[in-house]
Structure formats: structure tokens, C-alpha cells
Amino acid sequence: MFNNLSDKLDKALHVLKGHGSITEVNVAETLKEVRRALLDADVNFKIAKQFTKTVKEKALGQDVLTTLQPGQLMVKIVKDELTQLMGGDAEGLNLSGTPSIILMSGLQGSGKTTFSGKLANYLKNKKTKKPLLVACDVYRPAAIDQLHVVGEQIGVEVFSDKGNNDPVAISQAAIAHAKANGHNVVIIDTAGRLAVDAAMMTEISNIHKAIQPQETLFVVDSMTGQDAVNTAKAFNDVLNFDGVILTKLDGDTRGGAAISIKSVVDKPIKFIGTGEKMEAIDVFYPSRMADRILG
Ligand code: GDP
Fold first, then answer.
1. Is 254 in the pocket of ligand 1 (CB under 6 A)?
2. Is 117 near ligand 1, meaning CB less than 6 Å away?
3. Rounded to the nearest whole angstrom, what is the distance from the C-alpha of residue 57 to the centroid of ligand 1?
4. What broad class describes the main subcellular location of this protein (predicted)?
5. How far is ligand 1, taken at its centre, from the CA of residue 275, in Å?
6. pTM reported for the whole predicted model
7. Which of 7, 28, 107, 121 could form a disulfide with 154 if both were Cys (CB 3.0 to 4.6 A apart)?
8. 247 CB near ligand 1 (under 6 Å)
9. Mean pLDDT of 267-292
10. Which protein residue has the closest C-alpha to ligand 1 atom 28?
11. Closest Cα partner for 220 from 163, 170, 260, 166?
12. What's the CA gap between 125 and 147, in Å, rounded?
């Protein structure tokens, strides 16, 4: 995960580690390398620039030039700033409401259906939760079948209505079904398209208005870097979602989406997907991620 970024940051900071004392020029050179590493990771230019500016101010403010181990101090400052950039503290799901309604949004192929299954499985394993999965992709029968396969695999009921082409009606019927059958969490998987378009946005926004979910989650493929961030912005403008799900981190060597998305949409990354299997789900902890990136 993010190996390229880790290697480059390690190299950039390594230079300072060997020095007993350093100059402002050493700091400036190191930060130039840090900025280059972030840009190579597909972090937005402005974010990378602001990041190194903040790190520089903190480094000089904490007397990095006269400290005994400037390299260590710089690593700590960079780590703390990365943690802040990725969201600070971890944020959980809002599971109030009976049932708690979770609406999944995102482009086709982002990993929505897979993640819906992973989340249902994760909640089911908490014992107090009895989730219901809902198939609301009315355009692709294969997507409905896919959710049924996932549901069978994890032993979670899937609600669908193949002849019905109204996703609002399907979601409402699913919620009624959940109430009648003791499901305390409803996870609604919606249709995505290959790119952001008005019809998709109107549809998801109509579902959102009709069912008023406790959690609206935006699912995005981590490997798409700045595109992921732009897509997040488009969905957030319409849905004002509550959190981001970053999938396919197992294949992401760069890390740009993970690093920039929070500061662009000001919404926390809540979970990550780290593989195709149902167990490949983790709560996102910014500090742990920063630790991993900086080794
Ligand atoms: P949807 O169109 O948004 O519902 O996307 P899918 O759930 O069908 O996922 C698209 C593809 O990405 C599938 O082949 C999934 O197995 C794969 N996928 C989803 N999440 C992950 C993940 O975290 N890691 C990896 N490696 N593959 C994933």
C-alpha cells in the first residue's frame, strides 16, 4: 500500500536523519523532495504546497535547526501533519434510527456492491446488528444478481424487486420490509455510472430525499487519485454525504486520494477496502495510515 510514496518520503527525510545539526537550506531541500513525493502520489498541487508550508512553519517553530535529532523531529512533524490532513481522529458510523439506513453512492466499478456486502458482514459480526441489503440498481440486472451472490455468501438477506424500475419505491418498500422483519440496519446499494452525469445525480438525490438516511457513504476507487477527489466533490455537492469509503487500497501504490480527499470535501474517510474478499474491510485510522506511510 502506497509503497512509492513511502519510499520517496523515506528518501527525502533520510537526508536529515544523518545530520547532528541542520540548516534552513537542508530543511528547504527536504521539503522540496517531500512536495515532489506528494505530487508523484497524485496529491493536488495546492494541498501539497500548503502541506509543506505548514510543515516548514512547525519545524522552524519547534527549533528543528538546533535540536539534537532533527531527522526524528521532522519525521514526527510530517507524520502529525499527514494525520491531520487525512482527518485527525477516526470517525465511526451513525447507527441511530430504527432501522439505521445507510445509502451507498459512487460510480460504477468503484466497489459499491462489494463494500455493501463487506459492511453488512462487518455489522452482522457485531452480533447486535441484523442488516438487510437492498439492490437498487434498476438498470443492470447483473448488479442485482451480484448483490444476491454476496448476500448468500455472508448469510445476509437481500431485498430486490427486479421488475420495478423506481429506486425510490424499492428503497421505501425495503425499509418497510426491514421494520416488519426485525432488521435494524438497511444498506442500500444504488446504481452508478461510468462518469458523473445529471441523471445519476438526480436519481440518487431523489432516493436520499425520500428515505433520509442516517449515513450517506460515498464509495471511491483509491487508485484513481485526483479523479477520485473530483468525483467526491461532485457527489458531495449534491448529496452532502457523511463519509468516504476508499476501496482497492491494496492495489494503490500512490495514495493521493487517501491524502487529499478529506481536505477537499471536508468529510472523513470512514472505512477502507483492502481486497476482494468480504473480510477485506478496515476502519480508517488517519494516524495508523500516517504511521504506515512513514514506516
Ligand atoms: P460497483 O459497480 O461499484 O458495485 O463495484 P463492484 O463492487 O462490482 O466492484 C468492482 C470490482 O472491484 C470487482 O471486481 C470487485 O471485486 C473489485 N473490488 C471491490 N473492492 C475491492 C478492493 O477493496 N480491493 C480490490 N482489489 N478489488 C476490489
1. no
2. no
3. 41
4. cytoplasm
5. 8
6. 0.95
7. 121
8. yes
9. 96
10. 276
11. 260
12. 18
Separation of CA 254 and ligand 1 centre (Å): 18
Binding residues: 106-113, 189-193, 247-250
Cβ(279) to ligand 1 under 6 A? Answer: no
For the CA atoms of the chain, what is the radius of gyration? 21
Does ipTM top 0.85?
yes
pLDDT 10s digits, 187-200: 999 999 999 999 99
Q: Are 15 and 30 in contact (CB under 8 A)?
A: yes
Residue 156 · residue 120 · CB < 8 Å: yes
- Residue ranges of the binding site for GTP: 106-113, 189-193, 247-250
